[in-house]
Amino acid sequence: MKATLRNSICGLGIGAALALVGTSAFAQSRDTISIVGSSTVYPFSTVVAERFAKASGAATPKVESTGTGGGMKLFCGGVGTGHPDLTGASRQIKKSEFEQCQANGVKDIIEIQIGFDGIVLANSKKAPAMKLTTKDIYLALAKNVPAAEGPTLVPNPYKTWKQVNASLPDTKIEVLGPPPTSGTRDAFVELAMEAGCKSFAWIKAVKDADEKEFQAMCHTLREDGHFIEAGENDNLIVQKLDANHKAVGIFGFSFLEQNSDKVQGSIINGVAPTFETIADKSYPVSRPIFVYAKKAHIGVVPNIEGFLAELTSEKAWGTDGYLADKGMIPMPAPMRKQVAANVASQATMSGAGLK
To answer: What is the pLDDT along the chain (355 residues), one digit of tens a residue?
Structure first.
């Protein structure tokens, strides 16, 4: 029997054999949707999964918090029930990730922007709230910073917030933040660190001349113990802030909302992180959040269409939806309508314009 199957595959030719192998990837089907990805998107995916299962009677989707980068690696690993169906991301998929998906046979990807989120620098409510600028953030956390005597970078000499800015507390710089696999970290360095870095005119000029050098200068976080990688578990960061009143943590606005009895968000460039300031983009460290789905899995793994319909329903992501209650900032109504239509038609992304 095995020899017959082997001979049959050989006789099919390479293309047909690969098609047969691809089909067999679905042979051991599962009845539970598999979702991985961002720790920021995790609570939103989880509540949608629970609501969907309760309303439909379907099995509750399995949701895992792996970080945006880790989720993309799993999602782009291939097609078939051995791979996740969806992944959450606290930033848009990267060009390199999209290309990896394509190389592994994940050809048709549905991109779903589900809303907005702010990245906060929070501390314990038992300490004074921080009032920072993006320049302060860059100087406090960059591996190398501008020298006082001229246009060159030196290893970061700042040990306290007061050394960065005389108006800040005379306490040690101790910031708990996400690891390199996190979309929150990607967005933070792009929105906060880069903005502060560009406040130096000579560094801003580098951006036009050499983008890679500019990113190395502005996106590289210090490694001397003042920035501490605290993993993908944002709840753990909140617990550490509650225990250490002098520390500052970096995480998504939704976790600030859920723990407002313990922690408070720093004011950045004169703007506090609130539902309203993130929605109108006046808060400088805000970003879109996404879910990505494999079109090839729809109709094979049961209930993916129903889950996506729940995710893009007004009762979920609308202004008065239950995701807003969890801290997600809704998109404008016309944008929600367009994205929902794209999802309903299973429109896939081309990859154009990705970075």
So the answer is: 334 333 433 443 433 333 344 444 565 578 999 999 999 999 999 999 999 999 999 999 999 999 999 999 999 999 999 999 999 999 999 999 999 999 999 999 999 999 999 999 999 999 999 999 999 999 999 999 999 877 899 999 999 999 999 999 999 999 999 999 899 999 999 999 999 999 999 999 998 889 899 999 999 999 999 999 998 788 889 999 999 999 999 999 988 999 999 999 999 999 999 999 999 889 999 999 999 999 999 999 999 999 999 999 999 999 999 999 998 999 999 999 999 999 999 999 999 999 9
Superfamily of domain 30-116+288-344: Periplasmic binding protein-like II (3.40.190.10)
Strands 175-177 vs 227-229: parallel, antiparallel or unpaired: parallel
Selection from 231, 235, 236, 204 nearest residue 218 by Cα: 204
Q: How many residues does the chain have?
A: 355
- Judge if 30-116+288-344 and 118-287 fold alike in CATH terms: yes
Dihedral, CA atoms, 317, 322, 323, 326, nearest 10 degrees? Answer: 160
Beta-sheet strands, E only, within the chain: 34-37, 62-63, 86-89, 109-124, 131-132, 144-146, 153-155, 175-177, 227-229, 248-252, 263-265, 267-268, 286-294
CATH number at 118-287: 3.40.190.10
CB of 220 within 8 A of CB of 188? Answer: no
